[in-house]
Amino acid sequence: MKVLKSINNNVVSCLDENGQEVIAMGRGLGFALRSGDELDETKVEKLFRMQTPDEARRLTDLFSTLPSQQIELCSRIVDRATQDLGRRLCPSVYLTLTDHICFAIERLRQGTVFQNTLLAEVRTFYPREYALGKYGLELLWQELGIRFPDDEAANIALHLVNAEYENSIQDTLRITQTLHDVLTSLAGWPRLNLDQESGFYDEFTVHLKFLVFRAFSGQKQTQKDPRFVEAVRQCYPEEFHCAQQIVEGLGSRSGTRLPPEEEAYLAASLHRTCRKV
């Protein structure tokens, strides 16, 4: 690979065999390198391939302003997330998460910490991503001596969710806020009591999460089953009415009109998870 420029002693911008810009990282990799030099690929520990030239440029600009140790720690969080979640993450997460964490470190050193008002919802609906956020906080404490509150674990988790589903942070926040609002409305439903101790509660939260994701992505269940819908309506009228209200609200927020089958499946899930009062 040909060197474009040495960003610092450990990070180099270069061209791969296809003429695309990639960012290479390795201990001492950029020392004494100049544009046009051939990169010693045996020293490369990590390659960052962005999806667009603009992202590559932004990553280069970002890395040029940050300490190598912080860049490496953020990369380790993403690599651990890829392993633990068992799925490909959007490459831009290296850019967005590194930018976020390093800015959060700067704010913390200045005495500024922001509360994440969706902390409880992140714990509930994204438990694996939240656990990775906690891993990231522990890494920052062990390696940099920086202690963040749990709110920052939720922030990291939201960036990982973005990378899993290739949403923008704004879309992920809208979805998470919607999940919060649904749980709030359920808590106030007069004759149903959502039982968080139920063995079906985790199943319900997963069902609800993907229902909201489908609504905001415009995806719909294609299988029609009017007999199932009518059976649920007859057997669980209170849960069905509640599910109708939730699905109609989702449709208004997302602009996606969801079919009655979604109401029936949600009602059945509510029946398993709620205690009648």
Structure explained in plain terms:
This protein has 277 residues and is of the alpha+beta class. The chain has three domains: 2-50, Roll (Transcription Regulation, Sacy, Chain A), CATH 2.30.24; 68-166, PTS-regulatory domain, PRD; 171-276, PTS-regulatory domain, PRD, CATH 1.10.1790. 60% of the residues lie in helices and 9% in strands. It has eleven helices and six strands. The chain has helices at 53-63, 68-85, 93-109, 119-125, 127-144, 150-165, 169-187, 201-217, 226-235, 237-254, 260-273; strands spanning 2-8, 11-15, 21-25, 46-48, 192-194, 274-276. Helix 7 runs antiparallel to helix 10 (237-254). The longest helix has 19 residues, at 169-187. The model has no long low-confidence stretch (mean pLDDT 90).
Rg, please?
23 Å
Task: Report the principal-axis shape.
Answer: elongated
Note the beta-strand portion: 5-15%
- How is the biggest beta sheet arranged? 4 strands, antiparallel
CATH first level of the largest domain: which class?
A: Mainly Alpha
N-to-C order of helices and strands = EEEEHHHHHHHEHHHHE
Give the structural class.
alpha+beta
CATH topology of the largest domain: PTS-regulatory domain, PRD
- Largest beta sheet: what is the strand line-up? 1-2-3-4
Structurally, the number of domains stands at: 3
Question: Would you identify the regions where 5 or more consecutive residues have pLDDT less than 50?
Answer: none
Q: N-to-C terminal Cα separation, in Å?
A: 68 Å
CATH architecture of the largest domain: Orthogonal Bundle
What name goes with the CATH superfamily of the largest domain?
PRD domain
